[in-house]
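Budget justification aside, the reviewers requested a transparent look at the raw inputs and outputs of the sequence design task funded under Objective 1. We therefore reproduce one unedited record. The lines immediately below are the structure tokens for a 257-residue chain.
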């Protein structure tokens, strides 16, 4: 199978870690429909469908000389040990000319030993769980927008992506608009100061580490609701009293479900 899987310093695909089957990577995850049953008639009120976690399963064969098969098995075990915390790691799959990355943890590992194990043939199955089911192009796209300007943010995925934004001062009350959604903060940024917004995590912090979510302007969407949809999207940046180096830097990864 012509696939390469990169995980925790280990590369699967080709010798010694051959991959014979990959499931769940291109599948649509389970869906929570969000429907509510109608109490007095057939059917339900439709809700917004939301994808559940993604489960990815790779099946393959470790093939190595007799003297190397033991170290190769131990290397696989070490790379797929249970994490000691809740942090996720990048799982990158390159297949059919496309490289995408999800953030995952190992949820199952099976290493099957049989008569051919001492000869250098050991089969394995690995499973990962991706709490965020989206898969992202590894290299980010960056769009720089001066105050009072519009810039096009191309998004070549098939589902909205949540960017990271840094707004540089000097400027007051910075505001970004994309696809009809307005994100604005009632803050004053001096020269050399900035505001960092993580739309995936739903956070906003000043350069001194102070939480800025309480300064969200009336009528603004929360950061986690501000996305860059698929397609070519004009993004507008406005602010009062901008000067010199003031700008907004919008950084995001093309996203695929």
């Amino acid at each position: 199978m012509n696939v390469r899987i990169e995980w925790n310093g280990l590369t699967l695909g080709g010798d010694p870690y051959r991959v014979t089957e990959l499931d769940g990577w291109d599948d649509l995850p389970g869906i929570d429909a969000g429907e509510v049953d109608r109490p007095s008639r057939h059917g339900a009120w439709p809700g917004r469908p939301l994808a559940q976690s993604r489960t990815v399963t790779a099946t393959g064969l470790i093939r190595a000389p007799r003297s190397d098969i033991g170290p190769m098995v131990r290397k696989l075990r070490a790379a797929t040990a249970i994490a000691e915390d809740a942090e996720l790691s990048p799982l990158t799959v390159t297949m059919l000319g496309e490289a995408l990355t999800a953030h995952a943890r190992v949820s199952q590992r099976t290493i099957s030993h049989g008569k051919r194990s001492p000869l250098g043939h050991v089969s394995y199955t690995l499973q990962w769980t991706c709490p965020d089911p989206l898969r992202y192009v590894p290299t980010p796209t960056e769009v720089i927008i001066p105050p009072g300007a519009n810039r096009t943010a191309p998004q070549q995925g098939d589902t909205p992506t949540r960017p990271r934004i840094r707004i540089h001062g000097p400027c007051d009350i910075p505001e970004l608009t994309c696809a009809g959604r307005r994100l604005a903060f009632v803050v004053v940024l001096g020269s050399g100061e900035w505001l960092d917004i993580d739309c995936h995590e739903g956070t906003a912090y000043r350069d001194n580490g102070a939480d800025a979510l309480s300064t969200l302007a009336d009528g603004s969407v929360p950061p986690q609701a501000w996305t860059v949809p698929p397609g070519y999207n004009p993004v507008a940046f406005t602010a009062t009293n901008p000067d010199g180096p003031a700008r907004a830097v919008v950084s995001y990864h093309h996203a695929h479900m």
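The chain has two domains: 3-133, 139-256. The mean pLDDT is 96. Computational costs for records of this kind are itemized in the attached budget.
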